[in-house]
Amino acid sequence: MNKLECINISKSFVVNNESLNVLKNINLSVTENLNIAISGKSGAGKSTLLHIMAGLDKPSSGLIKYNKKSLLEMKNEELSKTRLLNFGFVYQFHHLLDDLTIAENIHMPLMLNNNLNKSTKLETIDIMKYLDIYKRKDHLPWKLSGGEKQRAAIARALINNPKFLFLDEPTGNLDHENANHIHDLLIEMSNSRGIALITATHDNEFIKLFKNVYNLENSILSALNE
Questions:
Q1: Contact status, residue 170 vs residue 92, Cβ threshold 8 Å
Q2: Given its phi and psi angles, is residue 114 left (phi above 0), alpha (psi -120 to 50 degrees) or beta?
Q3: Going by DSSP bridges, is the β-strand pair 18-31/3-15 parallel, antiparallel, or unpaired?
Q4: pTM for the whole thing?
Q5: What is the structure's pLDDT at 95?
Q6: Which regions of the chain are under pLDDT 50?
Q7: pLDDT, position 216
Q8: Domain ranges of the chain
Q9: Predicted pLDDT of residue 29
Q10: Phi and psi dihedrals of 184, rounded to 5?
């Protein structure tokens, strides 16, 4: 079973010649099929923790292991490949490329993995239909609503069949109705595809959908429902 581990993770930044501790001795283990939500105020360090867990940033101290192998010891090429094949990312803003159609945006991870073929194109169609954006596949992003853009971003994150999906305030830029729709889609797709959700959010309605909830406050991560 695939496993992602944080071992004594700490992170600090230097601000005005002073050290600012954002994360302190974080220990967390996430296996596939396990969904977790990390709550906390804006600026608490939730995004920083997600970036470190995904190998997008480095901790000041501690280890990040994926299937017992340290992400910090991987060379850049191996780390990029690990992220591409095993991790997906959805942010508050969709980050779609403006000059590509929705289908082309979703195909990008496949192209980076040299895996864009007839079979994966058919899978793209299935995902777009499931997320109700297939009719928009040939449109540029500016023609889509906020909810449609975010569903396209989710499709792009899922196209390589990741084991772990990192969600950084995925509905923070949406209205209540669209946000709830995205919440339900994410949980449903996680259950049907066996993808672990690692979510940073202060949306209480979204948090209610998770059995495993943590709170990040004063650099310390604490379980709320153990």
A1: yes
A2: left
A3: antiparallel
A4: 0.87
A5: 80
A6: none
A7: 93
A8: 3-223
A9: 93
A10: -65, -40
